[in-house]
Amino acid sequence: MQKVPRYLEKLTPVEEAVKAIMEAVKPVAEEELVDTWTAVGRVLSRDVVAAYDFPPRPRSAYDGYAVRSGDTPGRLRLLGEATIGRVDVEYRVEPGTAVYVSTGAYLPDGADTVVPEEKARRENGYIIVEKHYPPGKNLDPVGAYARRGQVLLPKGYVVTMLDAVGLLDVAVTRIYVYRRVRLAMILTGNEIFELRNPMEAEERVLRGEVVESTGRLIEWAIRRYTPWVEVLGRVLLPDDVDTIAWYVTRQFRNADVIVMTGGSGPSTVDTFYQLAERLGGRVLFRGLYVKGGRPTSALKLDKGPLLIVLSGHPISALHGFVRVLYPVLKYLGNVVRAAEPPAFAYAVLEEGGEYKRPQPVKVKLILRDGVLYAKPLPGERQLSSVTVSNVEADGIALVEGRRYNAGERVPVIVYREPSTG
Amino acid sequence: MQKVPRYLEKLTPVEEAVKAIMEAVKPVAEEELVDTWTAVGRVLSRDVVAAYDFPPRPRSAYDGYAVRSGDTPGRLRLLGEATIGRVDVEYRVEPGTAVYVSTGAYLPDGADTVVPEEKARRENGYIIVEKHYPPGKNLDPVGAYARRGQVLLPKGYVVTMLDAVGLLDVAVTRIYVYRRVRLAMILTGNEIFELRNPMEAEERVLRGEVVESTGRLIEWAIRRYTPWVEVLGRVLLPDDVDTIAWYVTRQFRNADVIVMTGGSGPSTVDTFYQLAERLGGRVLFRGLYVKGGRPTSALKLDKGPLLIVLSGHPISALHGFVRVLYPVLKYLGNVVRAAEPPAFAYAVLEEGGEYKRPQPVKVKLILRDGVLYAKPLPGERQLSSVTVSNVEADGIALVEGRRYNAGERVPVIVYREPSTG
Q1: Domain check: are B289 and B365 in the same one?
Q2: How many C-beta atoms surround the C-beta of residue B61 within 10 A?
Q3: Which residue range or ranges hold the MoaB/Mog domain (chains A, B) (predicted)?
Q4: pLDDT tens-digit profile of B204-250?
Q5: Domain count, chain A
Q6: B317 CB burial (10 A radius; 0-12, 13-18, 19+)
Q7: A125 occurs within a structural domain
Q8: Which among A96, A270, B252, B358 is placed 20 to 30 Å from A325, CA to CA?
Q9: Residues A252 and A328 in one domain
Q10: Does B87 contact chain A (CB < 8 Å)?
Q11: Domain extent at residue A217
């Protein structure tokens, strides 16, 4: 029988743990120039600066008629149409004439104002304009949306889908971004297996084996919340230090971070220390001062990647992700401001409680008059390692280690539409 | 020059528009049996019911020693180890003996209680237990997580990643779900082009052409918020009714919904009516009573798909998505409760304002003491068709057509991490 190692003796507080990692690793430095769609989810390595005044020529802000202000009011001959996307404006608005323009179309030369379509009457190839339109009316002047040299999106920001749409509109088609943070996943545990054959899997679970789900959940969280990270690979391995070490040194040596699940519990073979000894590395911390994710640990390999170990239990691993891995991936990726973080919604606690350590708390969510309320599941279900209680919950609140009163606000990972009333 | 059709004469209120569509179409009826990972994002077509009591045998809730209650306190001979995932427990706990168990492991026969590892002393193949442990202590009894027949997740719920993890833990490996809603996208506009060559694209945008971004944004929103929808295809077409009709009838005839962007504005060729006439269909509504997304319209083709037209402008199209397409896709997909909806975070308005119609308002988001505040961008930037103002904003608030006072709460699509303080 194997020697059972001693229990984790010192648990490191979250802030200290994150700080220890940040001191041991450096953010990604390499940058690349990519097209604007490819930049979505990536981190800007330089400010995005407008290269031009945009629009470069005045643009109509309405569907209507481009005319000369001096001609209004009046009866004007309609020359034709200058719709958005016309490469060249074919018409010149001479005195006494008008050109139909659609919203966003460049104004034809000669015109200096726009009469909205519904304000003019049409009559046999002419339009009748009843009142005076001053120059510059109903149009966007040169530089209305962007001025040459203006910072459109600052360095360190994650480019969101909406940013990309906005930048393309003002002719920003290429963007400098940091290369993605390279991450690999090693999921360990003799008892885990990948779901391939559902019927066989059912039997195996009933017999005591476990479908690998922790790694899947963490990979999902990485793709969802840290799109600037590239998942190089994801492998299931038995609790065997030789095999794990081989993977670390032969397969994933170019990763910035290796995330390992399992292998760090108090009573399993302590893969963690053995790896540190075998590969030459520095233990940054060993065990996190939290409830749910206590085995979370970190190791910096000499001339090798950072190794972060998360709990083998899904909810506890997710807690480790939110508390440690997420801030570390932001740091490695040079992120100043991300897209939606995992827990940006705040909910009002419907019940107080005493929490000894930072912990994830499964909650039912209720939306009432625009306020989100969170009702913690009964104690033993808040953090059950068997996670069926997820289906009773809609989110995971993140509490700190202290007493909470009903009515206090807590950040929540919302994974289901809250119920109402 | 083309005949310019008259302006939209009647705008339909949002609720009426959604109702008109729901009356014209039927939700998906077909179901399929898929594995639990595949079910993520899909809609349950039946309740998920536990087929077994789970765990089927008592499981240890701690790393510790499985013993007989009657033997405690006492000195017990350690027989070996029964770790999680062992297919068969090899040891039987006879009087005077103990077996090491890890958290989640099935209890060996004979044992009826668990002594946590740190509460026992180990001594030459024996353990010393100092106090009495009653039967059932530190273990999860049969059926603790799921009872045979129990509804684990009800019909109509979207299966979230966390649900899947929980269900796999109790041996639910196959799930009945509705087939996905089939959606195709037709993006129209003579002026739009797909971003392929960034340098050339920059020049073309400066000359007045437009990079296709509305369809990309809507496709992103569909994948993000309605994962039960399958995007069959996405095609750019010129403003040509014949071509569009060919696509509708030849390529996308099996879609449940065709989403078209552009082609429904007041002054372009009215593709919409022409399609209805050509293909035989019923106009459900033509123009939405909103600001930003006014051209939103719907058409039910005879024996053909539902056609929903969104604005050609990205933010307006997104508004149409949130107000009309999202509820319709929920209805078509049989969704009772979705995962995170597009706008479940509510923010406190920092400034009041008068809004004539329902409208998207770009906002800066600030998080202070767990309360999210939204500061609307200056009037002309709230809904600019040129969307560079997105980069000044972090979210899009959805307001109704009425006066708002500072301090009122509004739902927000959050697309960037809120700033603090």
Answers
A1: no
A2: 21
A3: 184-331
A4: 999 888 999 999 999 999 999 999 999 999 999 988 889 999 999 99
A5: 4
A6: buried
A7: yes
A8: A270
A9: yes
A10: yes
A11: 14-28+180-332
